[in-house]
Amino acid sequence: MRVVSCVNLKGGVGKTTLSVNLAAYFGSRGLKTLLVDLDPQTNATFSTITLQEWEQHANLHGTVADLLGARKHTNANAHQKTLDDVVRKNIFKNVDLVPSHLDLFTIDLDMAGAAARETRLKKALAASSAGYEVVICDCPPNLTIPTQNALASSSHFIVPISADFLSALGVGILLSRIKQLGQDLDQPVTLAGIVISRVGRPAYHRDDIVLQLKKQFGAGVLKDQLSERVKVAEAASKQHSVFDHGDAQAVSEFTAVCFELGKRIGVLK
User: Fold this and answer.
1) Can you list the alpha helix ranges (DSSP code H) found in the chain?
2) Would you give the end-to-end CA distance of the chain in angstroms?
3) What is the dihedral of CA 138, 140, 142, 145, to 10 degrees?
4) Which of 36, 136, 171, 211 could bridge across to 23 with cysteines, CB 3.0–4.6 Å?
């Protein structure tokens, strides 16, 4: 099983869009895939299921907050929620979802003294009977407990980046912190790629920033890029993947990026 975290310390760089569509792409290639939404803003969740579906599922089955310990839901037999309990099946072909919850906003305070709080997702994945081949974790724009759980479970990580000054500034810091966290948790994580996304948004010195990223990180930066497109946002608002929303250019871009990431992660040839 490959577990892949989509991370950046800045919001608005395309993490959720890439996470959701990467999961959809792997599912379309026949890989049994799990999408885990670890961001309390729940954008990946609402890109795949409706608000009503989420409310019903959260009440009946729980969310990622139950797995991480932010909620203490148990059934009548005092059974703690497992990953198999909280999964929402078949959001796309061959793709299941672990939805997020607003409770994650205060999880660092709620679990300040909890033991092994960074490894709860890893244990939940190990105990699952579902047999996932790929797990994609959509992380919040920080290194708090949800992101730490994702990285403590991961074999690889992806850094989507919008080519503006503030987005690019923190990449080196992010990579060094992930390396240190991997050492601390005895879970080395491999960079699968830096993906330049949301191309087309106004940004000063875009070409210079892209050039500097390629100079600094070399082959770590994917050649193919993802453009800012209205159809991509429309797909998310209708709980569709890009591949099911009829924009040939978007499909072409996402196919190229997802295929290259699949090769780097080791699930596609």
Assistant:
1) 15-28, 43-46, 51-60, 64-68, 83-86, 107-110, 120-127, 145-153, 165-169, 171-184, 206-217, 230-237, 248-265
2) 16
3) -80
4) 136
Rama region for 231: left / alpha / beta (φ>0; ψ in -120 to 50; rest): alpha
Residue 202 belongs to a domain with what CATH number? 3.40.50.300
The total of structural domains in the chain comes to 1
pLDDT one-digit tens code per residue, 120-174: 999 999 999 999 999 999 999 999 999 999 999 999 999 999 877 766 778 889 9
Cα dist. 77→57, 63, 85 in Å? 19, 19, 14
Q: Determine contact, residues 86/63, Cβ cutoff 8 Å.
A: yes
**The two structure tokens encoding residue 66:** 């139950």
Whether the per-residue pLDDT at 259 is higher than 80: the answer is yes
